[in-house]
Amino acid sequence: MKRCVLALGALSALLLVGCVGTAQTAETVAPQTEAPVQSVEPIAKTPQPIVVELTPVPTPTPSPTPSPTPTPSPTPSPTPTPSPTPVPTPHPAEETLQMNAETVTVYEMRSTSIRFYKAPDADADATVIKSSSTYPDQRSFLLLDPDAADEAFLPVLYLKTGEEGYVRAADVTESRTLGGKHSWLGFLGRQNTIIWNLPHLGYATPVARRSYTAVRVLGLAGQNDSFALILTDDGVIGYVQASVVSESNAEALGAAFRANEETPELLYSADAFVTRAREAEGEEAASDAEFVYDTLRALGFRFDPYYYELYQKPLTNKTYYPRLYTDAVYNSLGFKLFNTSGWNVTYDGERTQWLYLDDAASLEPGDLLFFTAYGAKDKPIEANARVVFRGKYSGYVTTCGVYLGGDSMMTVVDGTVTLIEGVFASASEYGAYFDSARRVQTEVTDLRALLIETMISNIYDRLGTPYSNGQRLGDRAYDCSGIVCWSLGSLGFRLYESHPLYMDMDEGETTAAGLANTDSIYWETYGVTIPLNMLGRLEERRDELALLERGDLVFLMNSKHTNVGHIMVYLGNNTVIHSTTITSTYRGTLVAEIRPALQALYYCTRRFGEF
Questions:
Q1: Angle CA(344)–CA(346)–CA(348) in degrees, nearest 5?
Q2: How many Å apart are CA 133 and CA 130, to the nearest integer?
Q3: Cα–Cα distance between 46 and 409 in angstroms, integer?
């Protein structure tokens, strides 16, 4: 009831205010004729008290404080079991060569004939092997499983044919000349080594050619043990000249097998090479050669590990290197990079090309620079014989670096990758000792240049080997035509396409006079015939010497002027590389200037033509 009284009072007040407001508004809009204003008597009202009923607000009951949820103790994570270091997957060749064993076991026949079984069973198919030969491989068997040595049947590899099978243990006995203490691991220490079927060149025929291939030497054979019977990493069996086998071990060969197994990222360009070299500034490096080598590998190049990492010439052996070029630098990585044509370097699985640059004015960013510094007491050139020992063309490489352009390069100084500016400035010690440069390419673009540089590279690798007119070819000594034919034969050359032998064989090579009269040679590796163009034949044309180019074959008359008696390979700037007998001291494969006495004997030049 109280709420109703309050509501009606409020409504009356609102109606009164509303009427007054309305009259005022009408008067303003439409004025009326004046009339007397009547007063309005207000309505008398008895004031009533306003009573408001308030609903009491209940006092809230406080909620009980919740008990805190206890923080759970963390469950300790188990200590992770460390992942085992991955064991490298054995290369298939490691089993072929039995690299986990220091020696291998070889059996030989007890009689002149033996049954060779296809299975370890007396009733299995078998063939009869007969041998009356004195050659050890034709009566011998390599034991394939050392754990089977006490069994009645032995799993073996017949060395003559490479067939696998079984022989009765009672029919064979351990060899006295092969296996055991006679066996060891090594690799073939030169390009395209010929593997023969017999340890006698007069009767032998080639079985295969291999380049720096890992081998198991089974023993020595031939006159004066001059041949080694080998098993290669890809299963080829045969004989090589013992001098081409370099001894190694399982650890080194295993590392070589795995060196190039990972597929490289193909990142190389000259710009990328320069950028990577610049970014290395301030980093530590073992040597300038290691810096260049590692950078190129990181950009996708693959180097033959047997040559660049394992191959070492026996420079201290006075039989192989009696007097000349015995400094350790000729076994260094720097020398090997200087001596690279691209033949043993691949990119994306294909052979590469390292173009030779003789002139510093033609350099471009990314070119490799080589320098040949020497001390005040060194003899750069022998005064009379004009033999080159230091400086340009000598192969005595002391520094290498990456040309950045702007007369600057990146190299290594005191173990730190360092930027060198003003490389060819007048006061620069580098410019005074500049030898040459190589422009690295990921593919072969000039096959003729590859031929010339690889031919020269092979001969450089034999600097210091003695001269011998009796042993024309091989790996210990050469005469003048022998070193040229050996180098070309190593690349797969024959005198002509139908010739049965390569030029690095006794009946495949020819003399200086023979080469002077050879119009072309056949390159089996690429299946092409290469013309040998004649520059001139007249003895009086001495002016031709000024026209010679790198790779030209230069011929001289003998001292009696009756026949062609000598051949040299031209390097540049009146300098050649050849095998010669200047004096009793300066004999062998060497670099020399064409001294006046030789210029007087000039006969002609043969130049490799385009093809």
A1: 165
A2: 9
A3: 114
Cα gap 311→313, rounded to integer Å:
7
**Integer angstrom CA distances of residue 546 from 162, 193, 535, 605:** 55, 37, 12, 12
Give the pLDDT score at 81: 61
Report DSSP state, residue 535.
Answer: -
Q: Measured between alpha carbons, how far is 398 from 464 in angstroms, rounded to an integer? A: 18
- Give the pLDDT of residue 87: 61
The answer to whether 236 touches 207, Cβ cutoff 8 Å, is yes
List all residues 6 or more positions away from 151 whose beta carbon is below 8 Å from its beta carbon.
120, 169
The tally of CA atoms less than 13 A away on the side-chain side of residue 453 is 25
CB-based contact 407:298 (threshold 8 Å): no
Helical (H) or strand (E) element with 23: helix 2-29
Q: Which of 226, 185, 235, 183 is nearest to 208 (CA)?
A: 235
Strand 184-188, strand 245-247: pairing: antiparallel
pLDDT beneath 70, residues of the chain: 1-88, 471, 536-542
pLDDT for 336 = 98
What burial class does residue 76 get, using C-beta atoms within 10 Å of its C-beta: 0-12 exposed, 13-18 middle, 19+ buried? exposed
**Distance from CA of residue 374 to its chain's centroid?**
29
Residue 483 and residue 480: Cα distance in Å, rounded? 6
Position 350 scores a pLDDT of 96
Q: What is the 3-state secondary structure (H, E, C) of 306-329?
A: HHHHHCCCCCCCCCCCCCCCCCHH
Can you list the positions of beta strands (E) in 500-611? 520-523, 528-534, 553-557, 564-572, 575-581, 587-593, 602-608
Question: For residue 220, what are the contacts with CB-CB under 8 A and spacing of at least 6?
Answer: 177, 182, 227, 228, 229, 242
**Bridge-partner residues for 410, per DSSP?**
402, 419
Q: Single out the residue of 444, 467, 606 nearest to residue 525, CA to CA.
A: 444
The tokens 């590990």 sit on which residue? 305
Buried b or exposed e, range 502-531, using 16+ CB within 10 angstroms: bbbbeebbbbbbebbbeebbbbeeeeeebe
Residue 302: per-residue pLDDT = 97
Task: Measure Cα distances from 243 to 36, 503, 535, 578 in Å.
Answer: 150, 19, 38, 21
- The residue written with tokens 């007998």 in the block is 581
State the DSSP code for 552. Answer: -
Shortest CA distance to 490 belongs to which of 199, 212, 200? 212
Residue 44 one-letter amino acid: A
pTM of the predicted structure, to 2 decimals: 0.83
Within 122-204, strands assigned E span: 126-130, 140-143, 153-158, 164-168, 172-174, 184-188, 193-196
Q: What Cα–Cα distance (Å) separates residue 333 from each residue in 2, 199, 336, 510, 592?
A: 115, 33, 5, 33, 24
3-state SS, residue 246: strand
Contact status, residue 284 vs residue 546, Cβ threshold 8 Å = no
Instruction: Say whether 369 sits in a helix, a strand or coil.
Output: strand
Pairwise CA distance, residues 532 & 521, whole Å: 7
Q: Which residue has the tokens 């540049």?
A: 572
Name the token pair of 161: 């044919």
